[in-house]
Structure formats: C-alpha cells, structure tokens
C-alpha cells in the first residue's frame, strides 16, 4: 500500500506541479519568504537538543509529514539549509574549536525493517544535504556510527514520557566506539517531541566517551 501511495504522489507531482505549502508559489516546495516567516522552535526540554521550526505551525507540520511519509524528498534540501545555519551558529557560540577539528554528523537510524518499508531514511537525507553544503569540511559524515538494534513502536504524540523511554530503551548501538571517542557528535533528526529518541541515542554513545553530543532537528 505504501509503495502505491508513493507512486500515486509522484504522478500527482507530474500532473499538478509542486507549489509552496505556505502561499502557493509555483515550482517550489517551500518558498524562501514562507520559510523565513515560519516560527522558530520553542526550547526543548533537554539542553543538548536544538530545533529550527515550531512543529505546531501548519505548513511546517504538513511539510514534515510529506517528507517523512509521502516520499517528497525535495524537502531535505529545503530544511538542510536552515539546519546547516543553525548548527554552524551553535558551534561557533558554544564550542572552543581546535584548528582543523571536524564533527561527526550522525543521522538517527531507522530499523532495517522500517527502512525497507519506507524506502529511505529522512534523517539520512537531511544529513547528506548538510554535507553537500559543507564546503569547508567542518563535518564528517558517519551514517553507520549508530544502528537501530531493534524495532520500536511508533512514538505517539500523546504517549506518556515513561512509556516512550521504556519503548526506546536499548534501541541504538554504537558500532565504532573508537571513532566516537573524544569527538563532538551532531545527531540529526526530522522532528522531536519529548526528546526521548535523541536522549536514547545520546545514551548509546555515552560509553564511547565522546567530547560532546548535540542534536538538531527540523522541528520541535
């Protein structure tokens, strides 16, 4: 059924050319004016998590839904530009950088079963677009540093926090502790609500003794 939905949406894109979700401007998924006018995310509960946009904004919510579930991968480039600016700004403000220092960019992984069903990992698409923007080689792409050790139930928005944490416990495994040791790691995700997924990813990296772990999401 999901494959049929993707095919149908691709046909719709051909018959009805893409237009901005905010204002309807043709030939763009999200025009620069509407993107600039979208509200910034409120502070996340966990200080290591940052997000660019407020998920409650209708256009942002619809864009992420289309990106995540309807195979509209073009949103990766749109959102990556904003995330890249957010990450660079935060690193410059909060870290003392060493000459030539690079940061590991790690997308939150999907379990292989869900990856087969969806056909792509939206967080990995975002991370790759960020790398493409990184002409100064500030980031080092590490897509396999974390793996999803077991499948987890979808994180319902109204699910209690304790249940979310239990659901995610042990979900991630660090595959290369030596590579992570002493490094600053940047986790990339599309959306965060309670922060449970990013918190568990950070916990999985802790035994590798990274210098720091930060997380950036498109929306919160």
From TrEMBL:
List, alphabetically, the CDD domains matched: PRTases_typeI
List where this protein forms a coiled coil: none
Where does the sequence pass through the membrane? none
What family is reported? Belongs to the ComF/GntX family.
Q: What is this protein called?
A: Uncharacterized protein
